[in-house]
Amino acid sequence: METEPRTLRANGITLAYRVWGPQDAPPMVLLHARGADGADWTEIASALAAGPRRVYAPDLRGHGRSDWPGGYAYEAMRDDVLAFLGALGIARTDVVGHSLGGAVAYLLAQHSPALVRRLVLEDVPAPFPLDPPRPPAERPGGDLPYDWAMILATDEQRNAPNPVWWDHMGRITMPTLLIGGGPTSLIPQEHIAVLAEVLPDARHVTLDAGHLVHAARPGEFLAAVEGFLSPADRTRS
């Protein structure tokens, strides 16, 4: 397994990423939550790679070993992933996104639906404004493994999402699996249910694991994802 971080240039910045699985296997991209990085997926990626699949887990901009450029629009993160896939020569792939990574994933699916073969959204709500808004965050002390400006920028967008994100949900035409974390999650689970209703081809399951579903219940998470990506679905592009 190749798990040491690599880097490439994409969308004008350097992105770090990890990769697992045979080079000629069908591709899959895993997008991490806010404050994490690609290493967060190590256990899940190793299991998925045995499919076999070629699994890629980039550090989103402002996280880990990727560049911290100071601009953190969700659309910029989407464009990073789009350029990342282009640099790797990937024309079609399964995409799994958790929390912030899930929002980036659905924006990618809206923008380039032919690129995304199957979509998995882990504890990702519909982009509704928060009421009440999330209060201003207070920076922790010491060095951080992410850019604090990213936290402030993504909080602002989470409080008041671009309405276009919701308006374009109908563009997500590929089969989509939504995995909710249940009542102990910080994400309003009814917002996930609403998202499942509006997507043209969605399945919705709940695992009572809290927000960090794949970390708290990796076996159940993998079973749900593998069941969604059945052998009949795993055709190569």
Describe this structure as you would to a colleague:
With 237 residues, this protein is of the alpha/beta class. Helix content is 32%, strand content 19%. The chain is built from eight helices and eight strands; from the N terminus they run βββαβαβαβααβαβαα. An eight-stranded mixed beta sheet has the order 1-2-4-3-5-6-7-8, with helices on both faces. A hairpin with a 2-residue loop joins β1 and β2 (13-20). α2 (74-88) packs across α3. The protein is globular and about 45 Å long. 41% of the residues are buried.
Order of helices and strands: EEEHEHEHEHHEHEHH
Given the helix and strand composition, which structural class is it?
Answer: alpha/beta
Main sheet properties: 8 strands, mixed
Overall, the morphology is globular
Give the spatial strand order of the biggest sheet. Answer: 1-2-4-3-5-6-7-8
- The percent range for strand residues is 15-25%
Radius of gyration: 16 Å
Residue share in helices? 25-40%
Average pLDDT value?
Answer: 95
- List unreliable stretches of 5+ residues: 232-237
How many individual helices? 8
**Count of extended strands:** 8
Whole-Å distance between the termini? 23 Å
